[in-house]
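In response to reviewer comment 3 from the previous cycle, which asked for concrete evidence that the modeling workflow produces usable outputs, we include below a single protein chain processed end to end. The sequence was submitted unchanged, and the resulting structure tokens are shown without manual editing.
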Amino acid sequence: PLRVLAATLAHGASSAADVPAPADAAPRKDVLELRRDADDIEKRIATSGLLYGRPGLDAYLQAVADGLRRPEDGEPIRLHAIKGPWPNAFVLPNGASYVTTAMLDMLDNEAQLACVLGHEMTHLVEQHALQEMRAQRTRQGWATALAVLIGAVGAYYGGSQAGAALADLTASAGQLWTISAVSGYSRDNEREADRVGFERLVAAGYDTAQAPVVFELLLARTPDDAPGTRPYFATHPRLEERIASFRELAAAQAGGPAGATNAERYFVAIGDLPIEQALLLIEAEQPALARLGIHRYLDRHPDDARAHFVAGETWRAQPKESGAIDYAIAAYAQAAALPGTPPEALRNKGLLHRERGENALAREAFEKYIALDPQAVDAGIVRLYLQELSAAPP
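The workflow returned the following structure tokens.
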């Protein structure tokens, strides 16, 4: 993929109909197996709870991809946003293509998105997946990476529901999923995807200087000591190769007409996705990354009460950080001062004040919470807190 994931899945993205007729029966069988396995994985993803489920966003992703197509490309890829805590993008051999919410949250504009999609489309059109699968079959067989894959899938792709949906793949489908989501393409295939994907970017009129920025952003979010194997996260050296490759391509294009970034259109399209992504990252025990995304969103939407509430949640998830509780309370207070505040902002503010023995402040927050949502599921418990606090010194 742009790193690992995208590249692997994308190489299998061409359909059986798009692959030239082989000279013998064996390659044709490989193509049919690849398509069958891709169809299986697509069906599992559709029922796993992983899809983000915003038709408008999927339509926007599809429109950007369609703008990168060439007449000779054949069957188009079909774009979907998929929930995930790590930046990723990949294409299956049947044309089903996915971009994680983490990737969409990380990017700054449509030109960067087009870079991601152009790279993946090239893996698909050039049949890199088929090449990689044949090489893997020769070297190690289809099934050898399944143990690593299944151990990672639940944690990285949405928890137990997704893990269950993908845990019993056939050996060949498991190998395809591993290539797509864990391992990555060969260097030659990555370089080809860089070059041809960049040509698509130029032809569509985008700002080519944005291409290396995508990998710079990925590098910044890939710690050297990251535990385990993260989908779409290659090693630092391989990411640095991608950066150097795109910088060289962009430098050769310098001096031409300025391309478009379409940043505003991009942010309108993703909407409040950064809020949902921050909540996902908190659940994945990555509150610092969640805070990075939510603050980027707040820079554009300073009056969004729910975003301030989620900012408070990121600090509340790291109570041992210096000043974390103060920052959480301040964020909840900002949320409470804005229209449309989530009632939970007042409840959580009250809980933090109560834990610190700030009884008057806790009582005030709890009273506002009950007034805002008198039928809350935990209203009874909060009323007990209020009775307790009424008898306590301020």
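The chain has a mean pLDDT of 80. We consider this sufficient to address the reviewer's concern, and the full set will be provided in the supplementary archive.
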